Structures are given as structure tokens and as C-alpha cells.
Amino acid sequence: MRFLELLPLVFVMIAGPQILSAVFLATSENWRRNSAAFVGGAALSVPLVVTLAYVFGVGATGQGAPNEALSAVVVVLLLLAMVHTYRTRAEAEPPRWMGKLETATPRFSFRLGFLLIGFFPTDLLTSVAVGSYLAAHDAPLTHAVPFVALTLLALALPSLVLAAFGERAETFLPTARDWMNANSWLVNELVLGFFVVMSLNNLLG
Asked: Mutual orientation of helices 106-119 and 145-165 as an angle, nearest 10°?
């Protein structure tokens, strides 16, 4: 079924500052409301982008425009991005807004979830790819529901772990947060590499 082929893209949606933000908010002062607002923002923007891509994809179906050249350009750009990320890994610093997460408000968290998960470049490309893929294969839009649901579940996971395990999670989550913060370049490389594989598959398939 088409939706099963889309589920690996959930990793791309949450890898990097997305899951790091979820962990930061789970360790913030008002973590319950902040985490809920963050996931709520994503729950609004991700289906919006997927639906728009699906609608435009349905409109474009049948025009027969070749995409081999575009796929080749995407692969080259992704490889250059991987090289740049590796070469600047020692200089990489977390975005300024990440310093606000431990004292974030629900309003800030909602806005962050809406913009970061919906319109961060890799997430925007992934959501567009999901909607376009379903349209190109004449699959119903409802096949995107498991992809969206699993993405939201992954973003909620840090707060769910905290709610379930209490003090043990309070010790573990800051450690996980610090590791991801220090190794964000590696996570970015994994995400870019995943996109390279996908693009090559489209180019050669």
C-alpha cells in the first residue's frame, strides 16, 4: 500500500532541530502546555502542505513533464550540502531561537511547531514529496494520514516519555538533548544522505 512507502520519511521530518526542539520543550518550565502547543502547530501546517501539494499534483498529472533533469540537479545540490555541512561541523551553532525553548510560552511553541515542522526546508520538501507522490500514483489523500500521525507521535514522544517515566526521564532527556545539540551536524548529514538516496532512486528508477 502507498502509505507504507511514505513512513520512512517520518525520520526526515523529525531529524535535526525538530526533535531537538521537542526535547527542549519537554524539559521546559511549562512542558505539558508547550509540548502540546508545539505538536498542535505541526498538526496544522503539515497536513496543509501535504494537501496543497496533492491538489497541485493532481492538476499536473498527465502533462508528462520529465523530471530526470530536476532529480539530477537535486542530487548534486544535496551532495554539495553534505560537503558543506561536514566542512563547517566545528563551526556549527544552534539557532538563536533554541536558547528560548527552556523558558518558552505555549504561544511561542505553537508558532514554532507550525513554522519549523511545516516550512523548514527539509520538512517542506518532504511534505511536498508526500502529496506529490500520492497524486502521481492516483492514491487517495487519506493515505497521507499515517505519515502525518506518526510524525506528530514522534514529536510528542519526549513529553510522553516524561509523563510515563517521571524522574528517570528527567535525567535522561537533558542528556539526550545535550548529545543531539553537540552532534546536530551528524543528524543533518543523515537527513541529507536519506534525500540523496531518494533522489537517486527517482532518477534511476
From this structure: 140
Grid cell for residue 66: 520529465
What tens digit of pLDDT does each residue of 106-144 get? 999 999 999 999 998 878 888 888 888 788 778 899 999
**Of 137, 152, 138, 132, which Cα lies nearest the Cα of 45?**
152
Q: Which three three-digit cell numbers place residue 25?
A: 520543550
Q: What is the pTM of this model?
A: 0.76
Asked if 24 and 101 touch (Cβ cutoff 8 Å), the reply is: yes
Cα(189)–Cα(86) distance, integer angstroms: 8
Q: How far apart are CA 124 and CA 153, in angstroms?
A: 18
Q: Which of 109, 60, 74, 89 is nearest to 194 (CA)?
A: 74
> Which residues are within 8 A (CB) of 11 and not within 5 positions of it... i.e. 6 or more apart?
191, 194
| Burial of 77 per CB tally in 10 Å (0-12, 13-18, 19+) | middle
Residue 136 identity: A
Lowest mean per-residue pLDDT among 4-13, 100-109, 118-127, 140-149: 4-13
Domain boundaries in the chain? 2-60+83-204
Q: Are 50 and 144 in contact (CB under 8 A)?
A: yes
The gap from C-alpha 142 to its chain's centroid, in whole angstroms, comes to 20
